[in-house]
Amino acid sequence: MAGKKQFDVGTALDAAMVQFWRAGYADTSLDDLSRATGLNRSSIYSSFGDKDSLYLRCLDRYAARYGNRYDQALSCASEEPLQAVGAFFEVTLRRIADPDVPDGCLIAQTAMAAPALSPTITARAIEALDFQRARLRTALSAAQLTEGDADDFAVHMTAVNQSLALMSRTGASHKQLRTVIDISMSALSHALHAGR
Questions:
Q1: CA-CA distance, 92 to 88, in Å (whole number)?
Q2: What is the rounded distance in angstroms from the CA atom of residue 122 to the CA atom of residue 74?
Q3: Model pTM?
Q4: pLDDT band at 1 (very low <50, low <70, confident <90, very high)
Q5: Coil, strand or helix: which one is 75?
Q6: Mean of all residue pLDDT scores within the chain
């Protein structure tokens, strides 16, 4: 339409997502979002709704982007469970090492800020964490772990993955992150071999 500014929705969502990820929900103003996306306030409102609505879209975008990568990593779990879980953690390490995105994890950051967020945003973050645990549980069940062990390791691996994000945000070295993963992988290896 003549006179109407055109923009790429995906690019704007990515810019908003990185802004929220870097500063957090509470410390991101509409002016910050306007600077990050290149859109004025009215364009943000008309395209994405209020701040909560935009944040929810950013959470969904983040969860889908990294969720697809986690799914791909875990796809060989029935044949190569240790390799699959190792690949799962590699997705996180690559995200942490990516200079184009902030340290940490938008989902973990949201979960930690839950008391100050709307119930809808909190529920979405919990849903994303539950989905990650379910994804791991499915992969570990396919690896012939008992139902109880698959549940326990899914809870553990989800917690480890979120801890990696938190540690990266506070300046932990790659070696420290790798040590956390290696200890978890050793425990998983032991459980897999004990089940044979």
A1: 7
A2: 26
A3: 0.88
A4: very low
A5: coil
A6: 93
Longest dimension (CA), the chain: 68
**What whole-number distance in Å separates Cα of residue 41 and Cα of residue 30?**
7
**Band of the pLDDT at 196, cuts 50, 70, 90?**
low
End-to-end Cα, the chain, rounded Å: 65
- CA gap 107, 128 in Å, rounded: 7
* CA 172 from centre of chain: 18
Residue 81: in which H helix or E strand, if any? helix 81-97
User: Rounded to an integer, what distance in angstroms lies between the CA atom of residue 142 and that of residue 75?
Assistant: 10
Residues 82 and 12: their CA atoms lie apart, in Å, by 38
**Helical pair 51-74 and 9-23, crossing angle rounded to 10 deg:** 90
